[in-house]
Amino acid sequence: MSTLNKNIGLIGFGVVGQGFYSYLEENKEEKLLPKIVIKNNNKERDEVKAKFITEADEVINDKSVETVVELISDDKEAFDIVTKALKAGKNVVSANKKMIANNLEKLLELENKSKGRFLYEGAVCGSIPIIRTLNDYYSLDTVTQIQGIFNGSTNYILTQIFKDNVSYQESLAKAQKLGFAEADPTSDVSGSDALYKLLILTTHAFGKFISPSKVLKIGIQNITDSDIAFARENNLKIKLIASVKSNNNKLWLSVLPTFITNDSVFYNVDNEFNAVEVVSESIGKQTLIGKGAGSLPTGQVIYSDYKAPENYKYKYDKILSGKRIKYETQEFIWVYSDKITQFEKYIEEVVIINKSEGYAKVSIADLIKIQEELLDEKLSLIALTDEALKQLNKKYEFAYALQYA
Amino acid sequence: MSTLNKNIGLIGFGVVGQGFYSYLEENKEEKLLPKIVIKNNNKERDEVKAKFITEADEVINDKSVETVVELISDDKEAFDIVTKALKAGKNVVSANKKMIANNLEKLLELENKSKGRFLYEGAVCGSIPIIRTLNDYYSLDTVTQIQGIFNGSTNYILTQIFKDNVSYQESLAKAQKLGFAEADPTSDVSGSDALYKLLILTTHAFGKFISPSKVLKIGIQNITDSDIAFARENNLKIKLIASVKSNNNKLWLSVLPTFITNDSVFYNVDNEFNAVEVVSESIGKQTLIGKGAGSLPTGQVIYSDYKAPENYKYKYDKILSGKRIKYETQEFIWVYSDKITQFEKYIEEVVIINKSEGYAKVSIADLIKIQEELLDEKLSLIALTDEALKQLNKKYEFAYALQYA
Ligand SMILES: NC(=O)c1ccc[n+]([C@@H]2O[C@H](COP(=O)([O-])OP(=O)(O)OC[C@H]3O[C@@H](n4cnc5c(N)ncnc54)[C@H](OP(=O)(O)O)[C@@H]3O)[C@@H](O)[C@H]2O)c1
Ligand SMILES: NC(=O)c1ccc[n+]([C@@H]2O[C@H](COP(=O)([O-])OP(=O)(O)OC[C@H]3O[C@@H](n4cnc5c(N)ncnc54)[C@H](OP(=O)(O)O)[C@@H]3O)[C@@H](O)[C@H]2O)c1
Question: What is the ipTM of this complex?
């Protein structure tokens, strides 16, 4: 094949686009990139060898382009670009988790009909090669759980809260000032960003496509000073944990602020770092920790997707067995709140620590209901890991015994 | 290509060989494996479809065999097998870290001349895909450090010491009973096994081939009860850490028992788990944690090597730049000992805690000399991480100030 039809069509030249570009430079491949598509023609930009244009179609329909690298911000426009590019038979690389989580089933159909391939390692936990690891190593293994810290902004905010003894609001402001959180942090602090990543991994590990709107998701935006004080008192940290678990052909998912004990690997995953833990039948627990975002860390995996071996594609080998698996919300979680008595009617079991403060066993389905009912109020709920539950039960044995005597 | 010449030649049917075989079964590929080579024809074995034979040459010279999977115990015999197989143009998969660490340069020459490829993910930290991660993601990045817990047996022994409050000897005995340590544990407890893995990663990350005999290596076999007591008093754990660092075209390596503070990711990597931390200029710190050994965890990566995309080979892209890098031993390390005064003449700086107990700054070169001089005596030395040094300095400030007043 001549190099002429090996060109790259880069669409989007923001944080990640520029990171990707710096690897092309490093490897002296800028000549493969005659044009870069951006939105705003009047923005000042670093000088590069490519010509800036504003029409994505111009690179998508360019016969010399073999790989389209889609790195724009909007998810709907991105879906349109990726669809067209796959239809045009291009290899496509993307990092747009929202677009992918919302459209993965359709995207696979498009890929199946295309002579191109669709890779998107950059969409999940930045520099951590979790999709390839699932794809290359877990085909013949049964994954039972994936959980982790999938959002760097919220982890940075939570870390500062515990390190500097500040409130959620102060910590958010600092994270924004330092560029670790966006001006509009909604997608991060609400847990949406973590949820998109969780759903993409759920397809690779369990073969299921689940709509984001169906999943229990509580962000960190309502965490109170008394939640933080309680964590500190008990030598716990709060992390935003996304989790998917499977058992007996059932599947449960959630994104929840969670108390972590100091013997957990997640306890020392701080600042902007992400972590993914995969539990499987054959190899047990495996954990990958690294930077979940940023120009160079994300640019690097985009570059590796672009450079993947010629016949490399994601295999999605769980989709067949996934047909037997049902998404469920009938699973109990222990949650802490300083207003636990507010949800009395949904509570299965409770340990009251003091007045309205305590922790209770509630089903995922009921937590979703509680969220809907309390939509206007600020709901602060922190889940407990099994270890955190054990630790608290030991301490509050007395309260517990009194209630269940 | 007909399936006839896609056969597998499996040599070795022990812990790992049987693990590999179970994935072939799972994927209904046993028919690709008509013969398995073993050593002892009289051993009782689980029934399998393949025929057991004792002549490795019979599969190496078999035209129907495309991939030779070498999983025997001895390193010299393994080198012979791998050499012949590459010369015969076969793809080769191996997990023999001792053989690879001692012969990697020659093996690459053989691979370069062969139409086959040589993959060995199973040789380094079992289930953790660290070689592929370095190969696929770090080509254009500059790695500055790799360190980690590379040996599961020693980590299991050290974990039990701290959990059950037992001595090194008791813990070793328990690990042997449970199958986490070999009957002859020398290669594990002396640090050799960790060193072999470190040297393989050094080639992938820095492009250097270094002989095991040149590297500072202290095992865990001489750890004393008072070392353990000191760790406990200071809320530290001891882990066997293998490390390679590079700066300014210099490279330092060591395998040392090391005090770890409780804010380190390694602190909660316990029992038979391994961890690898890669630090690089573009993506910062990345850590992979998982089972470092065992039949299924190792068998799984052997299977993935066997199944790697057709044109996949390790790239060794650092070998060119590696030519500029020099292996050095002029670097200082802080070490603790309850007999620190024994090495007085080599000490650059010291903090005496009590009589002969203390911690001192010593060069790698001098630590190697100390080891040689004290060959007959039991030498217990525990390195300090930067964080451990900081923590101890704070506590022993007073002692320190007195000495350097
Ligand atoms: N930032 C991270 O660390 C990170 C990590 C993982 C994944 N991601 C994902 O990667 C993607 C890109 O993120 P980013 O942070 O690089 O975004 P960004 O900094 O906001 O940059 C977006 C780029 O896309 C261009 N653009 C927007 N709409 C366009 C359109 N319709 N046609 C052509 N170009 C368009 C913008 O053009 P102008 O330059 O003219 O404004 C800009 O260059 C997103 O999906 C994000 O979720 C980001
Ligand atoms: N065990 C682990 O978890 C692990 C993890 C990573 C890497 N590794 C590496 O993987 C390799 C295999 O380890 P293992 O634990 O599976 O060893 P093992 O249980 O001792 O099994 C060795 C096998 O090799 C056979 N064998 C020995 N010499 C042979 C020869 N000259 N020709 C043909 N067959 C021969 C033995 O035959 P018999 O059955 O007749 O005795 C046995 O089946 C070693 O290099 C080891 O370092 C092991």
Answer: 0.92
